[in-house]
Amino acid sequence: MSTPTAARPTATTTRLAHLVDEVRQAVERGLPPDLTAHLVGEALGPHLGAADLLTEEQRAGDPDQYRQHILHAERDGSFSIVALVWLPGQRTSIHDHVSWCVTGVHEGRESERRYRLVPSAAGAPPRLVATEDVVNEQGDVCGFAPPGDIHRVWNACGDKAISLHIYGADIARLGSSVRRVYDLPADR
User: Residue 115 forms beta bridges with which residues?
Assistant: First the structure.
């Protein structure tokens, strides 16, 4: 499945504006990526599941692939907030990221398989080894920072799933948070 294309930032609800302010305060502290991600996760958690966080347009899916709605891109490029809308069975490729990221499940459930890149002997290509399978329920928050952020995510429920992703990069400019897609042998 291809990576969804970026759209311009969409309308902001009052709750989303508060989240943006809270994330801005965390990012402006200038801490290392892992600490920034932790603070951003603390800001995101209380907003997950709130009916007034997203507009109807921002909750819309796409029958062909998961859909990315850019909710906010900070003018200085220091962070972006994105809603990903997943219909049943939709998934990402195995990938890593351009920056730190915090993810929270707003609605539904998502599954995630995390991988480690393992070098192979005698010039053979490296391979991916699955290290952990995680089910993220509504309200769950997780964060990570490269390196070591290789994973695949998919909708793990029979209904629409929506997750919020906060990246330490300008996704409106970049188009995606994906740094690299892995087409290597991988554990299933």
Answer: 130, 150
